[in-house]
Fold Cryptochrome DASH.
Amino acid sequence: MSASSFSSPLTHPLRRFNHHHLSNKPVSSLFFCSAAKMNGNIHRVPGTTILWFRNDLRVLDNDALYKAWCSSDTVLPVYCLDPRLFHTTHFFSFPKTGALRGAFLMECLADLRKNLMRRGLNLLIRSGKPEDILPSLAKDFGAHTVFAHKETCSEELHVERLVDKALKGVGNGTKLELIWGSTMYHKDDLPFDVLDLPDIYTQFRKSVEANCRIRSSTRIPLSLGPTPCVDKWGDVPTLSQLGLEPQEVTRGMRFVGGESAGVGRVFEYFWKKAKIKPLSSSFLYYDTDLLKVYKETRNGMLGPDYSTKFSPWLAFGCISPRFIYEEVQRYERERVANNSTYWVLFELLWRDYFRFLSIKCGNSLFHLGGPRNVQGEWSQDKRLFESWRDGKTGYPLIDANMKELSTTGFMSNRGRQIVCSFLVRDMGLDWRMGAEWFETCLLDYDPCSNYGNWTYGAGVGNDPREDRYFSIPKQAQNYDPEGEYVAFWVQQLRRLPKEKRHWPGRLMYMDTVVPLKHGHGGGNAQTSRGSKSRGGFRDNHSGRQSRNHLFFEYIGCGFGGLLISLATLFPGTLMIGMELRDKVAEYVKERILALRKTSSGGGEYEN
Ligand SMILES: Cc1cc2nc3c(=O)[nH]c(=O)nc-3n(C[C@H](O)[C@H](O)[C@H](O)COP(=O)(O)OP(=O)(O)OC[C@H]3O[C@@H](n4cnc5c(N)ncnc54)[C@H](O)[C@@H]3O)c2cc1C
């Protein structure tokens, strides 16, 4: 595989990439070494091992693949399309895997097969439960071991137990060997027992950074064959065969599944050279150096480049965090080491943390009260939930993010925190509704990161300090001041002036479904549930309205001024009589709300 063979991993209408943008550094030189060289100290014994692929759909730095290859002279790679993946979520019966993630998975399998074939193997694709398929293969091929990567959450652990039991039932001594391989730091290298994981991320990070080192990625031989003779390797199924309705990505980013695209994205983000053609000469290349500015841009929401977008490939194991770590190190050696290069590792460490936390917390990660068993009042109001899910809350920032999620399967980290806070604190809904909807839609869905982040966002996580309110006015002001993001996703807002896009009002957009708890007087809310306190969370802004004295002159302008403002707001509309009166009333109301927004008192968290 060479860098130039990568397909464009991620496309966005704002800008499209192609393989010319990628570095010329051959990937093969980074990860592979010849089998002859490796065979020097490895004794491969006769026999067959099965390699059971799970969320590790890669060849590079794959310890299970390497161990399977080392332990016998024939390897049979298998992927089981487990029907349980396509059932429904646990509490609210949403589809367990949405169409976009389903399609991403199929692309991962096609790419994995291609990459395995390049090294003399293939991928056996079977539909069915691993506990049925693997023992039968073990018997047919006389396999002595099934190698796989270890998972940490209950559904996956349950399958591991069933496979183990079923293999024992075959009676030919086949063992299940589970390998740790999903984190940047190896679990066995932690300076504490994982059950004693600190409750506070910073303590974890400091301890790990001071006391552990990240292992080198595993070098995989160029040739891994032979593989046993198999009659039918099985096709990568179509979405309809999986019972999913195919969905086109019509707007925003389209992620391409698979290791090739994942590695391509790493090269693109770290090393890409953009091509420009000055007026009078041939093409020039320059480094856009996205990694160098990651810390400053990572909180963005619009476009492909504000953050790495590695998460879908990490979630399916198409790329390993150790590979990213090594590329960061190379970048620091060859270009620059700064806060941004460190910060990618800082974020990857959050991913490690949530994975280790899932071992410590067990199933409490999925319970309403979370790891701390917090008691609270939560609603499961279907109508409110659907307005959130469908991007129809009347708050453009929420609606835009939810539309992006359902259209592309992705949402920025900033967006996720905002919509989570809104669902939990402003709507007072059971956080698991949001978490399960994310489980359906996210391309990068991973139980540890998803439920870990949701429990934090809902204030029921293991760290009691992580109980945060995200004020929509403040978030809009800080992260989308021109309203570009909301206008990209919510069509009606495009024709509005920038300053109106986050607060378009009922006439230009729609009613808000609930008032906000902090930071805004409730928009133009015709609320379904009034403004009573929700969700069992403290409401520390009582008395705020009496503190804010609003005078007519603050509104701006007197009647003449209002007419001028209205003329700019509704160009081309001839307003007479009642209609004019209503528009004036609407405008005044919005000015008042905007003033409340800017003069609101305390009770907010710094986000
Ligand atoms: C409510 C909520 C749910 C989430 N669900 C998931 C999920 O199911 N799967 C998932 O991978 N991430 C999840 N995240 C974390 C984070 O939002 C995504 O990892 C990130 O937005 C992915 O974009 P990126 O790859 O460009 O991230 P970058 O900012 O480029 O970060 C680099 C990598 O660091 C890791 N990372 C960054 N932030 C976090 C974080 N808060 N928690 C864990 N890992 C992190 C990811 O692997 C990411 O790819 C969730 C966050 C929230 C608030």
